């Protein structure tokens, strides 16, 4: 999915708006995950918390004209990249959310499509890219070990 810089900025701004709900000074951290619900038909991106409270929403007009069947996968890549940029820029630091928490892509029934980003101080979320070829490496290691 090729999205214009303007549309990426709209998504980024909606995420930042949603995060402002967790920046206020508080004695207690909130226990929540953040849910992103993209909808190709309505071109809407709605962001919720665990209690189904809407934190932000925006319209991405380019989504309506996307004609391929892999909308969810392409949006997942896009949202993961934008969240990664926000994390790298420190936008996810100093939020009053109890760690670990996740950004999760959901469908129209609020069923999980993908976990986009896990935010924690000392946990690494293992993704498919990291695991590519692991079976082959383990099989080769075991073969070498058994030949000794």
Characterization of this structure:
With 148 residues, this protein is α+β, with helices and mostly antiparallel strands. The protein has one domain (5-122). It is 34% helix and 21% strand. The chain contains four helices and five strands, in the order H-E-E-E-H-E-E-H-H. It has helices at residues 5-19, 71-88, 128-131, 134-147; strands at residues 34-39, 44-48, 54-59, 101-106, 112-119. It has a five-stranded mixed sheet with strand order 3-2-1-4-5, with helices on one face. Helix 1 (5-19) packs across helix 2 (71-88). The model has no long low-confidence stretch (mean pLDDT 87).
Structural features:
34% helix, 4 helices, single chain, 5-stranded mixed β-sheet, alpha+beta, 148 residues
Layout of helices and strands, plus pairs?
Layout: H1 5-19, E1 34-39, E2 44-48, E3 54-59, H2 71-88, E4 101-106, E5 112-119, H3 128-131, H4 134-147
Parallel strand pairs: 1-4
Antiparallel strand pairs: 1-2, 2-3, 4-5
Helix pairs in contact: 1-2
What is shown here, in short?
This protein is of the alpha+beta class.
Mean pLDDT: 87
Number of strands: 5
In whole angstroms, the N-to-C terminal distance is 50 Å
Taken as a percent bin, the fraction of beta residues is: 15-25%
Low-confidence stretches: none
| Biggest beta sheet attributes | 5 strands, mixed
Structural class: alpha+beta
For the record, the count of structural domains works out to 1
Q: Helical amount among residues, as a percent range? A: 25-40%
Q: Indicate the overall shape.
A: globular
H/I helix tally: 4
